[in-house]
Amino acid sequence: MPTTGKVKAAIIGSQFQADILAASFHIMPEEAELVAVTSPTPRHPEELAEKYHIPRVFHDYRQMLRESDIELVCITAPNYLHAPMTIDIAKSGKHVMCEKPLCVTLEEADQMIDTCKKQGVLLMYGEELFFTPKYLKAKEMADQGGLGKIYLVKQSEKHFGPHSEWFWDVKRSGGGALMDLGCHGIAFCYWFLGRPRITTVYSQLGTYVHADKTKGDDDALCILEFENGAVGLVENSWARRGGMYDRVEVYGEGGVTYADLHMGNALPTYSEYGFTYAVEKAPTTKGWSYPVYEELWNYGTPQELHHFARCVRGKETPKGTGEDGRVVMEVLYAAYASAGLGEKVKIPYKPQTKMPIDEWLTRKDK
Ligand SMILES: NC(=O)c1ccc[n+]([C@@H]2O[C@H](COP(=O)([O-])OP(=O)(O)OC[C@H]3O[C@@H](n4cnc5c(N)ncnc54)[C@H](O)[C@@H]3O)[C@@H](O)[C@H]2O)c1
What we know:
By secondary structure, the protein is an alpha/beta fold. The chain contains 12 helices and 15 strands. The strands form 3 sheets. It has a 7-stranded mixed β-sheet with strand order 12-11-7-10-9-8-15. Strand 1, helix 1 and strand 2 (about 30-40) form a beta-alpha-beta unit. The longest helix is centred in the last third of the chain and has 20 residues, at about 320-340. It starts with 6 loop residues before the first strand and ends with a helix. The relative contact order is 0.15. The mean pLDDT is about 95. Nicotinamide-adenine-dinucleotide (NAD) binds near residues 14, 44, 81 and 164. The site of nicotinamide-adenine-dinucleotide has 24 residues, from helix 1.
């Protein structure tokens, strides 16, 4: 593998998040070039390749892994495929960037971490909230002591539900809104506070509007207690109308800060006729909408990939790791168990079921 020059990167998957990663490589091209894409669906990887000028297209990722010059492979496939793909990528000697959530079982998380270590490759966890400029600003102020001792960190992500059918199938996703969106909030609170140990989790879940589509939760409240005395409050929904909502609030003994990821980067807009695109998950562009400029930059995904490419070259150390993803997975099991038991659950938590969501589903109707 080369030690200088642009990192040769590839993506597995060609739809929603794959498009975001491909666009992000284009936005910050200094450290990496996207040379290949794989997806089993006919025409889909070809379309992504045409849109972003990606030279190589595959329909089987194992075939792509035989390309000896590819150094970094980004996984944007459904959650249940993250672990087998990571293990195959690592065994081919390539570095891994895995989208959130890390996988669907804690056992898989351990296997992913162990295999990457044994193979001497990086396992980088795709949590772009660690790179979101507005949220980084909040952390910078808190780390400088501007808010005094932090006692509450709140992160919310809400919209009306995912775009692809596999998210609704808990066997392939591992869980509902808590798993899909709560993984961001749990990681965020943990990272924001400087990764103190999480001691307990309490969670309240419901399936309020999408019971026809899923056994999973479509609304979730989750409270985390940290060893340093701070509390995390993670609120998520697939039931919230009106498009994307992503927000943090940080409360300290000496101050407070609020950051809305989209508002403040948005143009309050009224349109009688509509236009092509406002922002992720916006239900319409007619009437009032809030189109965001530089959307991906505001999310932090280009900065995240730039950083991961630098990690491949040994210039930086990963800010999002397999271990972070594992912490989130353990908390997800405990949070689903808490909702099932109706009580606070202590961490460390030893899973009682195969997937996180089963901790809730097997208890909730008893
Ligand atoms: N970081 C974020 O904010 C963020 C946002 C969206 C999605 N994600 C994550 O990215 C992953 C993908 O989500 P998405 O929204 O892009 O889903 P999607 O349904 O839009 O795309 C999934 C892609 O995986 C491909 N795929 C399925 N089986 C495959 C296989 N065997 N080999 C190769 N490719 C295969 C599909 O063909 C498709 O291209 C999920 O884990 C999701 O949680 C992260």
